[in-house]
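Reviewer 2 asked us to include a model.

Predict the structure of this chain.
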Amino acid sequence: MLPQQFKREHMAQVLEGWRAAAAQVARPVAFMEVCGTHTVAAWRSGLHSLMPVTVTLLSGPGCPVCVTSQGDIDGMVELAGRSGVTFCSYGDMLRVPGKKGSLEQARSAGADVRVVYSALDAVGLAARQPRRQVVFAAVGFETTAPASAVAIQEAQRQGLTNFSVLVSHKRIVPAMLAISSGASPGGSSGGPSGGGGGGLAQVGIDGFLCPGHVAVIVGAKAFAPVVEECGLPCVVAGFEPLQMAQGLARLTELVRDKSPVVENLYPQAVTEEGNARALELMDEVFCPAPARWRALGAIADSGLGLRREYQDFDAAARFGLHPEEAPEPVGCRCGDVIMGRCRPVDCAMFGGACTPVHPIGPCMVSSEGSCQAWFKYGEGLH
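Predicted model (structure tokens):
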């Protein structure tokens, strides 16, 4: 049997079993994925159109660009505009608008803003330009935090006094717990057909499709608190349509069986314990710290701060930066979208005032953002 034919037949079997399990649950169910790659993969593959009619997949705060608070974006833009500063960032961050423009606009106005592909690129730039202060925007979940840790240690090893890091790393499990604490299993008012806007209690979640990339680092057992404290099942899955369908089908079965557990359906990449060396690196350089999230606000221990021995590399302290919280752009519902309170098309700006060419909010900027994914692949799901 050809591989593609095997995949089609296997998918048909998974969908048949999934529909049977959904039919045995006496109510609609909603699951949330908290990974930008899952967001894009689900829309690009048409998975939403294949799901049982009683199952909804919500997009959660899984895109690191999208969850970065407006205040932190404003801080990046302000710092990039300082004299003598070379500001380094991953590409998606450049077009996220703040109240005083974006990094891209700051670069157009003369700021030295560079796109880098790794944190070590910024370290190399600092070594080559000793007369400039090189700042790296450390954004992302546990997936990118180990690379930031390596860069900071390398800068310390080289004795670079002109390199610093503006830390905006996030930890996904505290955010899942914050969402789960207000979630209402079985409630559908916050699903894609809902209008959205109030508190977390409006988000009806019955379980999580856990992020595969983050799980590679932290391990499957890291999601146990969501089960233990909130009673919601968690399934780790890969990114192929078949893998995601299997994960969502298993979540449906766990809801049917009233069995909230953590299951790892991505064993080829994810272990129970995670990547020991990556976790060690993060622990050497960072410690849990409070962080501000778009839509979620401040969450204790949901971010990473520099340990005392690496405080000299803290850009916020070096430049006296004190970012203040700022509201989202008027009319933008990005916060509601990443909380699963509404669909991108429920925002009045979607596809009109807000497009990938002229984005208003980060969900349309990021290649992993829900709005951009829906704009590209969501035709027919309106």
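The chain has one domain: 1-374. The longest strand covers residues 297-306. We have added this to the supplementary material.
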